[in-house]
Amino acid sequence: MLVKIILIFLLAMVLVGMIGKVVFPTALDRMKRKALGRGPVCRACGRYVIGKSCDCGKRG
User: What ranges do the domains of the chain cover?
Assistant: First the structure.
């Protein structure tokens, strides 16, 4: 009986994780970026973006 309860709980946690990944697909990327301590980087020149745009003139 206890094994069934544990198995159902684990399957429910897997289901919640799968639903969360579908609903919030970029949340994991943001969490990784925060954990690594890296801020937003400009895609054009590679420098850190302070504010809404980069110093290179392109929107980072």
Answer: 1-60
